[in-house]
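Hi R.,

Here's the chain you asked about this morning:
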Amino acid sequence: MASEEAISAGLTVVSVEVFQRTRKMFGFSMGRDERPVLEKDSDLYLLEFTPDTRHQFRMINNPLEDVPEEADGQMRFYRVRKHPHLCSFSFPSIKEEAGHGWDYSLEGCLEVTRGVDLLKAIGEAYAQPKSPLTVAVLSAWLAEQIRSWVHDAVASHSLTELRDKEALPGEWWNAHLKYRLEEYGLQLRVDRQAWTSASAEAAEAEERRKEHFQRVKRQREEEREAELQEIRSNQAYEDEKNRIEADATLSEAQRNHQLEVLRLKHQTETEALKAELEKIRRRTELETGEHALRMARLRQNEDMLRQVKHCPQCDRPLLNGEVLDKTLNLCEWCAEEYRNEEMDREEIVPLRLCISGPGADATVFLFARRTLQWGRCRQKDLYSHLSKHPQGDVQDYEIRENDIVLRVMEGDASGRVRSHRERSLAISGVHGALTVLPGRKKETIKVVDFSSSGGYLKKHRLPRGKWQPCPDNAQITVGPASTATLPGLGLSVRVFRDPDNEKRVQSVKLERDDFLGEKHHSYVMVVREALLGSGPDNPLLFPRNGEGAVAPHPWGRIYVARNGFMFERSPGNNFVSDGDQTNSPVLLEPGVEVRCGDYVIEVNAAGERDFYEV
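And here is the predicted structure, written out as tokens:
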């Protein structure tokens, strides 16, 4: 591809240089012979006349040798610059539609392929010694030559197809113009095309303005109605509250009970009305932004269209100085919804699932959060010196109580499991974290290390305090790696994505590689759902054929609801919970047992010691 300097210099296509041949007397030159100089990216041609008074162009490769010396007089050289030239072809009123005349323009790079053909077609006629053939003159001449053909090409398509749907894209023009311009020794690469009409743009802008005004007016009325509904709800609440308080037939306990029920009902109604009001206001703001973008496209305001950014989640245009959230890379709306949902998930306590049955003995911890933090201890006051915002690019991350408490575990000679003190102390109070972040192309996994002893991702040391992308299948080393004499702790990360939408993360599974890893000790972050079954795509695995009774694949799923984790069987599979067969989803809470054929899933609340001791 040609350099920017070559393209920007493309103002002159053909220039003429005249040199005087020296006169000779008695075989000797009477002066110094002047010759042109060859230049990069240009061809030099000499205009010669034949005996029958016809003329021809001859390419000069060496001005000192290729120029004949038989005759006296002037030598006329044509210099053809072959580097790409930025050009624009305008076709005024090329199409009529809805009473408006539309102008069409093609923009791109024009390049000379055969200088002789160009000189014969236009160069000799338009280029003079002090008046070169410029790109503007050449573009105007070419536009006139192909105007009738362009008119026929666009006549068979409507303006909507041409302007909004690109019925004739740049590739089409490149292919067809190649043969049209070949006879002139030229080649065009179309980069941009535009349809403009002053009268049509004015009419369309007015129509868009009226539509926008009507939509905003309607949304303002909805907003006002929601505000009035909130006022009526508050008034009804006060009236009913006064009635209950004035009812002498009620006992104190009955009065308090009815007031509490009324308060909860009013609180629910108020939250719903506020949510509806916020939705209307956001719709109004979104419409305003989209209207501004529509007008920019209509007016072909390339600067605004180039500068505007969109939210990766909702694709909303960000205008008026709005920027994406630095941590989540989302607009303020989506970031607020994300954090509100995360706050709701914080109320869901982790669960410990003990899976037992033929060939199965596993302990799985379930988390509803989309960010997991791990370290050596649970109590936050034990690492209070780290409670400030970390440095680096995670300044918005606030250290909290660890979700996972990690110790390096080993088995002794008697078969007991115990913590390896030396290596466990190498794990910091708050050591690291893993999070699932939304993205425009797909949701991503990132990991960060806060520790003093360090951490590794796929054998590469993690920089302290900086989020790093984590592959869907990776190995994280917490603290020093294992040696021949000292054990270490690694966490295998496996990401399970939605098979129907690879962008979405369903769940993330962390498996230990120390002694507890041999006992199938793992942690599952349920972003949306986690499947149970015997296949490789199941975070919660049962044995396969030949290792005992086999659960179908997949057997069921665990998903996050507002009140906790829910278990739902796959169609065609039965399960027994608390001794009663049912087809309804089951709320997983401590004390519940879910039977999967010969397998039993015992649900317990996850205690502090459960994370690092059996």
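One quick note: The chain has four domains: 1-194, 200-307, 348-368+527-614, 371-513.

Cheers,
M.
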